[in-house]
């Protein structure tokens, strides 16, 4: 029995080294406060590609959603590193978003196992707010088994201003995402929906549990209902990022049609957080936390987030 795998990874401020006058990327240039040099850029690209190669080893992922990617040249650099180590079958989907920091979402895909049929950015215009945010990325594609997958990738507004002060922004993005999913299901009630993202909220927060309506129990799934496959990990105290404790901001959500499919097997047990020792470091309290790129200065780690993944089993 073969598998098909999905990965979501917030790469933490993966900028190129060039100054874009239209975005707030000045800190990530050689002369910027972070001294973001080409050597540091290449080191990070190599580290990210190493994660992608190992997350579902010995296989390589079929779908990889990436957050905090500045532009397509950054995406292509990751692919170049993958090609250099033998993974020669990746292409990508990327659109420049209006985010004021210049960070976007991208999708890598294995061209031997997935064919893109359609894609588009879904513009999110936050009401009454001048700040610009990331688009939601939508991709429709076909597997080698002729299943049609509808993929949504989201990176919701951060909690930088505090959870309570910023939650209305995440509610709005979640409602736009839910509307886009509902349109697909209206046109095709049997649609196979996969949602991946950094929601900056946990599975129990309102934007996920109520606005998206992502359920956390999986008995007797309903075809058009959404189900949060990583919620059980959160209930065990596991997370994908760390701030005064582990938080599961990065999640994979599917439609009931996915859980009910007769062409492949998918359950919450097939989704997990990738947290090998090489991606962690011990903080001052002796806790293993994500080994990020900057921590009171440059330390050359991977990201402040751990990737999450889903591996479904295809039926021959």
Explain this structure:
The chain is of the alpha+beta class. It is built from 6 helices and 18 strands. Helices cover 22% and strands 30% of the residues. The strands form 4 sheets. Strands 1, 2, 3, 4, 14, 15 and 18 form a 7-stranded mixed beta sheet that branches. Strands 5-6-7-8-13-10-9 form a 7-stranded mixed beta sheet. Strands 11-12 form a two-stranded antiparallel sheet. Helix 3 links the parallel strand 7 and strand 8. Helix 1 crosses helix 2. The longest helix is centred in the middle third of the chain and has 25 residues. The model has no long low-confidence stretch (mean pLDDT 94).
Rounded mean pLDDT score: 94
Biggest pleated sheet: 7 strands, mixed
What percent of the residues sit in helical stretches (DSSP H or I)? 10-25%
Order of helices and strands: EHEHEEEEEHEHEEHEEEHEEEEE
Q: Separation of termini? A: 6 Å
Tally of helical runs: 6
Rg result: 18 Å
Secondary-structure content class: alpha+beta
What is the overall shape? globular
Percentage of residues in DSSP E strands? 25-35%
- Unreliable stretches, pLDDT < 50, 5 or more residues? none
What is the count of β-strands? 18
């Amino acid at each position: 029995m073969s598998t098909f795998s999905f990965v979501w990874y917030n790469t933490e401020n993966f900028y190129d080294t060039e100054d874009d006058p239209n975005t707030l990327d000045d800190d990530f240039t050689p002369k910027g406060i972070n001294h973001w040099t080409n050597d540091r850029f290449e080191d990070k690209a190599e580290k990210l590609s190493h994660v992608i190669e190992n997350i579902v080893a010995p296989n390589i992922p079929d779908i990889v959603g990436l957050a905090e990617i500045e532009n397509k040249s950054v995406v292509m650099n990751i692919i170049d590193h993958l090609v250099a180590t033998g993974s020669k079958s990746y292409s990508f989907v990327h659109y420049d978003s209006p985010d004021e920091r210049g960070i976007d979402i991208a999708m890598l895909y294995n061209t031997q196992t997935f064919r893109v049929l359609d894609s588009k950015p879904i513009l999110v215009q936050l009401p009454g707010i001048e700040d610009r945010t990331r688009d939601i990325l939508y991709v429709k594609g076909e597997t080698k088994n002729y299943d049609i997958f509808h993929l949504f990738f989201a990176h919701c507004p951060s909690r930088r201003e505090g959870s309570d002060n910023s939650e209305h922004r995440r509610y709005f993005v979640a409602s736009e995402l839910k509307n886009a999913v509902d349109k697909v299901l209206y046109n095709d009630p049997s649609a196979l929906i996969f949602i991946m993202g950094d929601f900056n909220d946990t599975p129990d927060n309102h934007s996920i549990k109520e606005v998206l309506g992502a359920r956390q129990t999986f008995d007797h799934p309903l075809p058009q209902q959404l189900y949060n496959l990583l919620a059980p990990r959160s209930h065990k105290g596991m997370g994908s990022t760390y701030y005064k404790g582990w938080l599961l901001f990065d999640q994979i959500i599917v439609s009931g049609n996915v859980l009910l499919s007769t062409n492949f097997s998918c359950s919450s047990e097939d989704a997990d957080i990738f947290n090998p020792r090489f991606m962690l470091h011990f903080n001052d309290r002796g806790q293993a936390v994500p080994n990020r790129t900057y921590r009171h200065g440059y330390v050359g780690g991977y990201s402040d987030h751990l990737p999450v993944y889903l591996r479904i089993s295809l039926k021959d």
